[in-house]
Design a protein that fits this description.
Layout: E1 3-6, H1 20-29, E2 35-38, E3 49-52, E4 55-58, H2 69-85, E5 114-118, H3 120-134, E6 138-142, H4 145-150, H5 156-166, E7 169-172, H6 175-183, E8 191-193, H7 208-215, E9 223-227, H8 236-249, E10 252-256, E11 262-266, E12 271-275, H9 281-290, E13 297-301, H10 308-314, E14 317-320, H11 329-336, E15 341-344, H12 349-352, E16 359-362, H13 367-378, H14 384-391, H15 396-417
Parallel strand pairs: 1-2, 1-5, 2-4, 5-6, 6-7, 7-8, 9-12, 9-14, 12-13, 14-15, 15-16
Antiparallel strand pairs: 3-4, 10-11
Helix pairs in contact: 1-15, 2-3, 3-5, 7-10, 8-13, 11-14
Length: 418
C-alpha cells in the first residue's frame, strides 16, 4: 500500500513547526509503508523536491488568488496536484535519487493507492476532486480549527462540507470534532477518532534544576511557560493580565522539591516565558507594560524543537489560553515532560488534561478565569512523575499504526465494492 499525503501546511527548513503534527505522524507512517508528501507552497526559495525528516516531499509552486481565492483555491489546488501526480498515477514509479544537499531531482509522476489529506480546505476539497478523477479513495483528517471554523463560516463552509461528503473516510482528532463533523452532514460511521501523539524520545521528564541551569534561569522563583503562534485567539493577553493579578494579590506557589517534600515560593517574583512567532507580539508587549509586569514577561520567539523539552522541564506550569483547538501538540509535549497544565477547556483538551491530576481547566476569554486557574494550580503540589507517565501513553508510532489500519480498511471496502 502506497500513501499520498496532501498537506499545504507542512514544515520546512524556514518554518520547522508548520504542520508539525502532520509531519511527525507521516514520519512514523513512512516506517510502515511507502509514503510521499505533496505540500503546495508559495515560497519560491524552497526546494521543489527534497527528503525532509526521512520522507520524500514535493513542494509544487502555487499562488492563492486575492479576494476571490476562497472560491477558486480548491479547484486550482486540485488541478496543480493532478499535474504533479497524474503522469504516472496508475504505474509504479522509481525511488528518488538524492543529491548531496538533500534535494531530489524532478519526477514525472507519483503512484499511490490512497490519498491522505489534512485540513478541510483547500487540501481535502482538492483531494476529493483528485480522488474522483483518478479512482483513488480519500481519507480526510480535520486538524481542529478547520472543523471549528470552516464548517460554519461562509463561503468556505460550502467547500469544507463538500469535502466531508465526498471523502471515503474521515478522521477527527477529538470526540467533539467528530460530533461537529456529523452535525455538518458527515455520516458518523465514517468518522474515526485518532488523537495526536507525542515524540516520547524527545519529550520526557528530566531534572528541573539542570534544565534551568542549561537555560540560564535562576534555580528559585516561579516559572510559567506558554508556547504557540503569537496570535489573538491563543489568549496570551488573558495570560499576561491574569498573571499580573496573581502577582498583585501576593499568591504563593507550592512546589515539589527534587529531594522530596514541598516548598512555598511567592508568585510576585516569578517569570512568564512565551515561545513562538507571530505579529501579535507588539500588542502583548504593550499590555505587559500597562499591567506593570514587562520586566517579568519574556518573549522567546521561535524556539527549536530540541530546546523545548528544557523549557517544559524548567517550568512550574504550562499555560494555554486558546479560544479553539484540536489536539494541541504543546499540551501533549508538556505533559510528557511532567509539567502540569493550566488550559482552556476547548476542543480536545479535556481529553488530554485530567482535572486535578495533570492540570486545571477553565473557560476561555477571561482574565479572571485564567488568574483563578493559575492560583489553583500554583497552590497544589503536583506529582510530575505521574503526569509524565500519563503524558507518555500515546506515541506517534501508535498514531501511525492506527492510520495504517484505517487505510487498509478503506482499501478493503473499495475492493469489496469493486
Amino acid at each position: 500500500m502506497r500513501v499520498l499525503v496532501l498537506a499545504s501546511l507542512y514544515p520546512h527548513a524556514q518554518n520547522e513547526t508548520l504542520g508539525l503534527s502532520t509531519h511527525r505522524r507521516t514520519v512514523e507512517l513512512a516506517k510502515l509503508c511507502p509514503v510521499k508528501v505533496v505540500a503546495l507552497t508559495g515560497c519560491p526559495d524552497l526546494p521543489e523536491r527534497e527528503v525532509y525528516g526521512g520522507v520524500e516531499v514535493l513542494r509544487p509552486r502555487w499562488r492563492r488568488v486575492p479576494k476571490l481565492g476562497v472560491f477558486l483555491d480548491g479547484y486550482r489546488y486540485a488541478a496543480r496536484v493532478a499535474r504533479v501526480v497524474g503522469a504516472r498515477s496508475r504505474g509504479r514509479d522509481a525511488p528518488p535519487t538524492v543529491s548531496r544537499d538533500g534535494d531530489v531531482p524532478p519526477t514525472t509522476g507519483i503512484d499511490f493507492d490512497v490519498i491522505d489529506a489534512h485540513w478541510l480546505y483547500p487540501d481535502a476539497f482538492a483531494a476529493v476532486r483528485l480522488g474522483r478523477r483518478l479512482g483513488k479513495p480519500v481519507v480526510v483528517t480535520g486538524r481542529g480549527s478547520d472543523v471549528d471554523e470552516f464548517l460554519l463560516r461562509w463561503p468556505v463552509r460550502v467547500f469544507a462540507r463538500a469535502a466531508l461528503r465526498g471523502a471515503e473516510q474521515l478522521v477527527a482528532l477529538t470526540r467533539r470534532h467528530k460530533e461537529r463533523m456529523a452535525a455538518a452532514g458527515a455520516a458518523a460511521e465514517r468518522i474515526a477518532v485518532i488523537p495526536n501523539g507525542v515524540d516520547t524520545s524527545l519529550f520526557c521528564p528530566g531534572d528541573r534544576a539542570e534544565a534551568r541551569r542549561a537555560l540560564g534561569l535562576p534555580p528559585d522563583g516561579v516559572v510559567l511557560l506558554s508556547a504557540g503562534s503569537i496570535v489573538h485567539d491563543k489568549g496570551y493577553h488573558h495570560l499576561i493580565a491574569g498573571s499580573a493579578r496573581l502577582a498583585q494579590a501576593g499568591s504563593l506557589c507550592h512546589r515539589q522539591r527534587e529531594e522530596g517534600g514541598t516548598g512555598i515560593l511567592p508568585v510576585a517574583a516569578g517569570r512568564l516565558f512565551i515561545a513562538g512567532p507571530g505579529d501579535y507580539r507588539g500588542a502583548l508587549e504593550r499590555l505587559a507594560r500597562e499591567c506593570g509586569v514587562a520586566e517579568r514577561v519574556s518573549f522567546l520567539g521561535r524556539v527549536a524543537q530540541t530546546q523545548m523539552p528544557l523549557w517544559y522541564r524548567a517550568a512550574d506550569l504550562f499555560c494555554f489560553g486558546s479560544y479553539h483547538e484540536g489536539c494541541p501538540n504543546a499540551i501533549l509535549e508538556a505533559l510528557a515532560c511532567g509539567t502540569p497544565v493550566v488550559s482552556t477547556d476547548v476542543g480536545g483538551i479535556p481529553d488530554l488534561v485530567e482535572e486535578g491530576r495533570s492540570g486545571v481547566l477553565f473557560k476561555p476569554r477571561s482574565d479572571e478565569a485564567f488568574a483563578a486557574a493559575l492560583r489553583t494550580a500554583l497552590a497544589r503540589p503536583w506529582d510530575r512523575a505521574e503526569i509524565a507517565a500519563l503524558g507518555a501513553r500515546r506515541s506517534w508510532a501508535h498514531v501511525a499504526a492506527e492510520y495504517l489500519a484505517l487505510f487498509k480498511q478503506v482499501l478493503a471496502r473499495q475492493s469489496g465494492r469493486g
